[in-house]
TrEMBL record:
A matching Pfam family: Helitron_like_N
Cofactor(s), names only, from the UniProt record: Mg(2+)
EC class (word): isomerase
Family of the protein in this entry: Belongs to the helicase family.
Source superkingdom: Eukaryota
Keyword set includes Repeat: no
Residue ranges occupied by any DNA helicase Pif1-like DEAD-box helicase domain in the UniProt entry: 197-302
Catalytic activity: ATP + H2O = ADP + phosphate + H(+)
Name listed for the protein in its UniProt record: ATP-dependent DNA helicase
Helitron helicase-like domain ranges (all copies): 2-89
Amino acid sequence: MSPSFIGSPRDMRRRYMDAMALVRKFGKPDIFLTMTCNPNWDEIRTELLPGQTPQDRPDLVVRVFHAKLQELKHRLTKYDILGKLQLHLLNMHMVAFHERQMVERVVNRPGADRSMLTAYFEANRLHEEARGILYRDFPEWYTCQSGKGKSMGKDIKTFPLPPIIDTYDDAIGTAREVYEEESIELALADAVLKDSLNEEQMAAYDKIMSAVKTDQGRLFFVDGPGGTGKTYLYRVLLATLRNQGKIAVATATSGIAASILPGGRTAHSRFKIPLTIDDGAVCCFTEQSGTAELLRKSSLII
Ligand SMILES: Nc1ncnc2c1ncn2[C@@H]1O[C@H](COP(=O)(O)OP(=O)(O)OP(=O)(O)O)[C@@H](O)[C@H]1O
């Protein structure tokens, strides 16, 4: 269905992409606003014919909702309901504090004497390139200066992201993906768990390991109710192969599931699976890519 059909998967995808592009440009929104329709709105009720209920008139409900949505957007954008740019006289800016906090402590708090506007003037005084920036665009410019140690945005290091491997040098001739996989810390404790595998885990372990050893290229489906030790088995397999200097790629369908596997990644990230699976969708990596090299070199993919 074409993207001009409102509500179709392509329309929704286009809206999602637009929203993400806006977030990239302007940063995360402060307010997330949703609007729902009340079928008992007077504007709907008064237009119903005798004996009709709102459920009988989706055409009417949709029109009233659309009109109200347009009105809401109009008020938000034209009447500055969500506030204007904050301007203030010297030392007359707003400071947020909790009602139980002592005023003196609030006033003496580091940074309490500054606001975005004072930072804007200071940046204009100190940096020539800041003089061409509008106040409206200032937060973005200021965040970009974080490398100089002054950021109004958060430091990327405060997010629990996997460490960036700085030691990688593409001159070594190995793709970054392979290098990163080879750099996963060896979980020696996991390899020892092999002796504690139960009978069924051991049977699966032996079959999988023998297929790896003989390079048979087999496909296994490990199934079992929750908590029966599938992840336990994967940890032993990953540790054993990695200890042997082999590449074992660990993937899962969700980020949380991936995070409990040592060196785990989501399947979408590892195999570059597109977010929307249309007819003919393919993973987005080429034969020469690092991802392809990693998959060729791997002994086991979970
Ligand atoms: N052979 C074993 N010896 C000792 N403990 C085990 C063994 N197998 C699994 N466990 C323990 O049982 C618990 C559940 O195991 P695990 O997380 O591997 O299950 P799972 O099948 O992956 O669960 P889910 O499907 O919910 O992800 C874990 O605490 C794990 O350490």
